[in-house]
Structures are given as structure tokens and as C-alpha cells.
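Check the record.
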Amino acid sequence: MKAILVPAPGGPEALVYGDTADPTPGPDEVLVRVRATAVNRADLLQAAGKYPPPPGASEILGLEAAGEVEGTGERVFFLLPGGGYAERVAVPRGMLMPTPPNLSDAEAASIPEAWFTAYLNLVVEGGLAPGESVLVHAAASGVGTAAIQLARGRGARVAGTVRSPGKRRALADLGADPVVDASGGSFAGEIEGAWGPEPVDLVLDPVGGPALAENVRLLRKGGRLVLIATMGGARAELDLRAVLTKRLRLIGSTLRGRPVPEKVALTRAFVRDVLPGLVSGSYRPLVDSVYPLRRAADAHRRVAANENVGKVVLEVGT
């Protein structure tokens, strides 16, 4: 089969469109013909040799895909620990979700990693309740655009941060208000100006280090900070007195390395709580751009340059 291979670690130039062996399904797995997959920053890190796949997972990039089950033709989409940048992938049957008839394969492939991450960390880890206030960092990312919609759908108000002012309008259209340009390094003042002091119940943060102090400043008593990545840095000073007096909870969360039974349970919860909104159209995946699989390097360049609003998708077989 055709796939994107990474013979040696590097940037987008390290990606090679070539041939590799078809996957062999294990117990309780099915073979899926991939029609589309999507790019995540984890793929860029893995290609650079900085984020190896979990033990036993495919070395091929790609954490989500949509396609057809071999032998039955069922249209499905699903989360993966790896292997999506290829014509075929082996998937545990319990991870498969039916593709809504109103969505293309490209749209469906843009959902699993971003929307599972948003759902897991807002609802399961963060305990988001109606009427609460949420701050979403890197709000123009796939996770960010999903988180805005999920939080709004659960009756919360949402503020977002971006580092490209041109992206603010798209996020406002999704329901974020305010949307703050954090390219200067500060965001708390503008959010306080809109919402008042200590207005935030839950922060979804893939930035890390430099955002920590202002996150803590904005959180009210009983607030939660869910850290999902450290794009801005892995180290920061923390005012422990504020953590104590505000009774804050700092939660670290990753998705990729969780065991399959846990991911199957998360898939069932997602199908129950989120899939109906995707079927009805009240939730919509935001596809920034679509590239053929052989142009995966160009897709990686777009994500690396932070040019996208929503997900960058790769179509397979084109």
C-alpha cells in the first residue's frame, strides 16, 4: 500500500510518499480502507523524532481517519494511536464510529483527534457545567474550534486566545467572545475587561509555561486548569498560595497513550454525547484545507506556519 514514510527524522522535507506492507488486523480489529486523514501537531513532533508512538502502535503518522471497512463497505471514522497516513489501517472494532451521512470523508477525518481531545478535557477531566466560563487557548486549532462549539453547546460562555489577529472573526462566528490576540504574550487584562476579575471556571491550555501565571490569575475559586500540551514551554513559576486560597485543580491530560479499553469507553461516550450534534449539524467540523496524501509535506508546512483555522486534511487515493 501507499503511505507517508519518515526514513529519518526531520521537518516536512523528511516525509516520503512510498510503499509499505499492508497492516495485519489483530484480535478484535478490522481492516479499513482509508479515504481521508488529518494533520495534528503530534504528527509534526513524531516526524521530527520528538514524539514516538506508544508501544505496539504503527510507526506511520496519523492519529485519525475516515474510510470504509473492508468487506462490508461501512463508512466509518475513528481515532488512532498511529497509522492514518496510509491506504489501509487496522482498527479495533470498538473504536469505529458511523460516519454521519451529512459529512464527507474529509470532514469526518477532521473530527476524532480534535473533538475527542476537546470532549475528554472539557467534560470528563474538566467537569464543565452549564453556565460556567471557559478559556480556550490556541482557539483557532482543531481542538480549539471543537472546544468552543462543545462548550457553547453545553451552555457555557467561551473566551479564546489566538496569535494571529486575522483568525478572530472565524472564532467569533463559532461563539467565542472575547477573542484575544495573545501574540504579545498577555491575555488576562483583556478578558478581565470583558468579564471582570477572576471570571474563569475552566481553562483548556495547550500552551503551558508562559500562560500559567495569567491562567491562575483568571481562575475563580474552585477553578480547573487542564493542561494538554506545552507548545509554549514546559517550565513556569507557580504561585502556590493562589492555588491554595482559590482551591484550584491543575490537571494534566494526554489522549494518545491511553489504553484501548479506555479509548473504547471514550468512543462510546462521544457517540452518546457529541455524535448527535454532528449528525444534526448543530456541531460542525471546521476544515481549513485539503491536500492529497502525496502532498503531506505541504500540509505539514501549513500547520507548522500556524496558518490554519481548523483542521488540515489529507485525502487518500487522490
